[in-house]
């Protein structure tokens, strides 16, 4: 269980510190994305836990919430900030889709390793491709919402 605690602490620290890399002209977008992404990740995570598809055997705030607070509220929203910061706005729709799908695949692979080698997450009816699909969906919705909210249509 020491490994799990170290991984959770490192994920939170690295995620928060990585926000320093956000360009100053995108600070408002960063805040918007952080709050925007927390809603669907919390709802999706909580729903999957309640339906018994996922378990988080080792988690922070265990007496309050059965999901992973650090992943749902810090790590994944911060990843969405970086995905948006480096999003290829001028690319073709095909390349934009490949960009989001590839990042989702990398994250899914990392989660798959965590599921097999740690007690941070256990699939009890969940499948890796559902993780990938939900991540790509949230990335896409985030990108579209940011483009709409910040009037970035000229970049698309």
Question: Can you walk me through this structure?
Answer:
The protein has one domain (2-155). It has a two-stranded antiparallel sheet. It is mostly helical and 156 residues long. The chain has helices spanning 2-18, 27-50, 69-85, 93-117, 128-149, and strands spanning 54-55, 122-123. Helix 4 (93-117) crosses helix 5. It is globular.
Keywords:
156 residues, mainly alpha, two-stranded antiparallel ribbon, 5 helices, 2 strands, globular
Task: Summarize it.
The protein has 156 residues and is mainly α. The protein is 67% helix and 3% strand.
Task: Round the mean pLDDT to the nearest integer and report it.
Answer: 92
Characterize the overall form. Answer: globular
The domain count comes to: 1
Number of strands: 2
Strand content: under 5%
Q: State the strand order across the main sheet.
A: 1-2
Succession of helices and strands: HHEHHEH
Q: Percent range for helical residues?
A: 55-70%
End-to-end C-alpha gap: 46 Å
SS-based structural class? mainly alpha
Contiguous helical run count: 5
Quaternary structure classification = single chain
Largest sheet data: 2 strands, antiparallel
Contiguous uncertain segments of 5+ residues: none
Radius of gyration (Å) = 16 Å
Detail the topology: elements first, then pairings.
Layout: H1 2-18, H2 27-50, E1 54-55, H3 69-85, H4 93-117, E2 122-123, H5 128-149
Antiparallel strand pairs: 1-2
Helix pairs in contact: 1-3, 2-3, 4-5
